[in-house]
Amino acid sequence: MNVLAICAHPDDAEIWCGGTLAKYANRGDKVTIAIATNGEVGSATHTKEEIAEIRKGESIAAAKVIGADLLWLGYRDEFFFDSEDARLAFIEAMRASRADVVLTHWPEDLYNPDHTITGRMANDVAIMTTVPNIKTASPPLAKIPIVYFIESVAGLGFQPEEYVDITDTFEAKKEMLAEHKSQIGDWLQDQYGSNAMEMIEITSRFRGIQCGVLYAEGFIRAKAYPRNIAGSLLP
């Protein structure tokens, strides 16, 4: 199976679905991580150009932990909008990865507008990926991918409908996040008072308690004709 995580910022996929991506990779599925924005505002000391390049390198290193491919879309951090160009880029990301499953932000994640827009747009364009008259570099998909929404930041307002047991991949999740050195140190702590490593430990443990395992990640599947399914495509 081909799995695409399409997230707003470098480190989002690792924080909110890294354990699930590692689980897909471990069973032999092809995993791709697409990042909508370049992370250029994520530093108080580097220029936009410098931190964007640093964060791209960190994202490549994090993807390598589980053998995932990386698609860097490069839109402006904090100024990402739903546009024709962005929609075509998302469609191409799904087509290029030949996605059967797409993991993306919950559209009600109000932490950051980049999250909200990424989740809504990824869900909106999924149905367009099979349409021949919408042209991108890659050919149309044969089947509309199934979309799963990942956790909101701190789980606020998010009630999972499905869970993935990531007990056996939680260390890989931490290893992926650890590659984002520019973020898990001073930036997130100084900007938001947030310890990202602590956050994934607490959130994953809480979701694990909810479903009877040690560590878990929670998801809500997008339910829309003609792309709903019986059962689950989560690992």
- Give the SSE string: EHEHEHEHEEHHHE
Biggest β-sheet, characterized? 7 strands, mixed
* The CATH architecture: 3-Layer(aba) Sandwich
Number of strands: 7
Net shape: globular
Mean pLDDT: 95
Q: Under the CATH scheme, which class?
A: Alpha Beta
User: Per DSSP, what share of the residues sits in E-state strands of 2 or more residues?
Assistant: 15-25%
Count of the domains: 1
Could you state the CATH homologous superfamily?
Answer: LmbE-like
How large is the count of helical segments? 7
Low-confidence stretches: none
Evaluate the radius of gyration: 16 Å
Q: What is the CA–CA distance across the termini?
A: 10 Å
Kindly report the oligomeric state of this protein.
single chain
Structural class: alpha/beta
CATH topology: Rossmann fold
Strand order of the largest sheet: 3-2-1-4-5-7-6
Helix content range: 40-55%
Organism: Paenibacillus sacheonensis
Protein name: PIG-L family deacetylase
GO molecular function: hydrolase activity, acting on carbon-nitrogen (but not peptide) bonds, in linear amides
InterPro entries: GlcNAc_PI_deacetylase-related, LmbE-like_dom_sf
